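Batch 3, record 17
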Amino acid sequence: MAINSSRPTILVTNDDGIEAHGLHALATAMLELGDVVVVAPREGHSGMSQALTVRVPVRYREEKGDTPYRQYSVSGTPTDCVKLALHTIVPCRPALVVAGINHGSNASINVLYSGTMGATLEGCVAGLPSIGFSLVNREPGADLTPYLPYCVDIARAVLERGLPDGVALNVNLPRRAVQGVKICRQAPARWHSEYDARQDPWGGDYYWLTGIFESLDGEAEDTDDWALRHSYISIVPTRVDMTDYPMMKAMEDWKWRKH
Amino acid sequence: MAINSSRPTILVTNDDGIEAHGLHALATAMLELGDVVVVAPREGHSGMSQALTVRVPVRYREEKGDTPYRQYSVSGTPTDCVKLALHTIVPCRPALVVAGINHGSNASINVLYSGTMGATLEGCVAGLPSIGFSLVNREPGADLTPYLPYCVDIARAVLERGLPDGVALNVNLPRRAVQGVKICRQAPARWHSEYDARQDPWGGDYYWLTGIFESLDGEAEDTDDWALRHSYISIVPTRVDMTDYPMMKAMEDWKWRKH
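Prediction for the assembled complex:
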């Protein structure tokens, strides 16, 4: 697979799967900045977090399509896609990893469950500038056109400036017309009433994951949740180091048994 | 299901599945501190991160066993177990969530992929003090006896002192005799050479996830990786807010298009 080396290579992936509209909208937009390779899950993997395929091997194949970039599908998770792309599929080291555009919000605590952000954080762990893009709208056919210039601007800025080691960007796009871009923190929140309990025809109980999102800091204007509710694009710089440093210090005086 | 209300209720889960030795060793040890309810995946779910079951419903059933606590298996991920336990299975709000003892390290960047820590962070998101325990030894029959007094001490300290909102503990147990307990930061690291490529009998390529762990800060004595290599138990206070605050500030001068 030959890639024109005068342009940066951009790896594009997602969690909604190789056929998703958002994936190809993003891949096509990225052609403005570089050569694009798409490596995405064969099937949708929403809510997959940074899960790995451990107990079975993974496979990939090139998909034929009338696209101005090559595309490969992987029989695994979004994180598997990034790992296998970097190990085997993409012949050079990409300059940028982008994931999305996800059909649904990955703002606030949803970052923890997001396959889109799983893939993004995987690019970050591999030492590559990485950005996840998600739209606060689950409709698979939502019009993405108005958002694409912003996605290109954000990706261009990251290509030009880089990102610190261990930091990726979680970008969420508001449902309504964009009022601007805001750098935000991850809103503290909780889901409640999380299951819809039903009975099968034989009287067995089963439970569908659902739930109501509740922001725990709804008035603060520096959160991604606030920005999106006010029609801003939210960008949260998101770190792979999950250490709570203040608590490390606070725990110094906890006493432990001697060995 | 009646629970003696004079003792705290402790929810015990894992990612290795309801039959794992480490799960029942931890559950039995926790009886010293409170009433125990086990809610664990029906099957093993290593590397599941904080993944959710979204596209199919989940079910649970009580498992019969000669144990001094009730145990339930769930047809989903470790995170599903915590969600369904809190929503439906456990009749009161637990005082503590513990996950493990995982058979394998969840130190350093492995926290990102860990189903054990996915369940732990889920307890934390739900506002409960939560601790994940993992042993740097993948042998399913490893002798856990020497570690259990430490697990009880750590759980007791958390029951007594609580944890700040949004902070859980990632506890890893060293392979050799314990020299003590250290409060640590998550070691920066990378996996490389991550796939073992093979061919099936029909000439098709497939890829097993494997890899070599490389610490990126091997000499620093404040990381979990260092502590474990020197036979200390590592405790990393781990936060669900993944925002990189310094980068938020640094991005203030990035310029964006006006709407």
